[in-house]
Amino acid sequence: xxxxxxxxxxxxxxxxxxxxxxxxxxxxxxxxxxxxxxxxxxxxxxxxxxxxxxxxxxxxxxxxxxxxxxxxxxxxxxxxxxxxxxxxxxxxxxxxxxxxxxxxxxxxxxxxxxxxxxxxxxxxxxxxxxxxxxxxxxxxxxxxxxxxxxxxxxxxxxxxxxxxxxxxxxxxxxxxxxxxxxxxxxxxxxxxxxxxxxxxxxxxxxxxxxxxxxxxxxxxxxxxxxxxxxxxxxxxxxxxxxxxxxxxxxxxxxxxxxxxxxxxxxxxxxxxxxxxxxxxxxxxxxxxxxxxxxxxxxxxxxxxxxxxxxxxxxxxxxxxxx
Length: 322
Fold this sequence. Notes:
Layout lengths: L23 E7 L2 E7 L9 H8 L9 E7 L4 H7 L7 E7 L9 H13 L11 E5 L2 E8 L2 E8 L1 E2 L2 H7 L3 E4 L7 E7 L3 E6 L3 H6 L7 E3 L7 E12 L5 E9 L3 E3 L3 H15 L6 E6 L2 E9 L5 E7 L2 E7 L5
Parallel strand pairs: 2-3, 4-5, 11-13, 14-16
Antiparallel strand pairs: 1-2, 1-19, 3-4, 5-6, 6-7, 7-18, 8-10, 9-10, 9-12, 10-11, 13-14, 14-15, 16-17, 17-18
């Protein structure tokens, strides 16, 4: 795993929402999807939307797609609920989008979060072991994978299953740069996604994602939108499916990568491709490549595993007036 860090280790935050100066943080990313992370075991650090938006501002703050607090599960109501059935989930990934809105979870963020906990020496992940992490989308289990991490993202499902199964699409999406609305399929990975398939790379390059695509009808809680181009051929000689993807994330805008989005894009494309479609996929995003694998979960539902790198870039401390 490639990383560049100072020798300062993350330390618990000691400031409240009204006085964030002195807050220790780490900057990290997974395939370019970047985050500001803080170690806040007791859950006392700032979380108000204005503070998070200011922190994640790329011109006036540190700059990030999202803000992640590492909080002991026992310190949060959502975490305490998970501990009733998942006592190994000591740490909770308290995730917020760059605009300060609360999000269920983030696939790239889970890998970076796990790497952050290991670097801070507050968790261990031996070879062959797993690390249970609490999120608002349930417990995610992390293992080591090559030069990065793999995460069992849990089961996927259609958000509008009747339309998905009967028509292969459930909505139309108005995307900047494209002349007509495109059919799409909405998939839940614990958070909502709407996947649009494009015919060729030239179309993907034309897409303008400085404004949010308009989805009709929209999922109840809004949605992330993935634009995907299947490779030609879709399945390589190695039996692995391949996609190229761009994404507009709720509360953020276009990002270099979206882990749950890559899972949703692979799930939708696999559904469209039919019963002979492979279980393994490689999804190329502007920030790199992530792996997506489908497998039978313990409860009889199909799960999705996301694998890829996690990089910690720097440590720092907020100054007064930040």
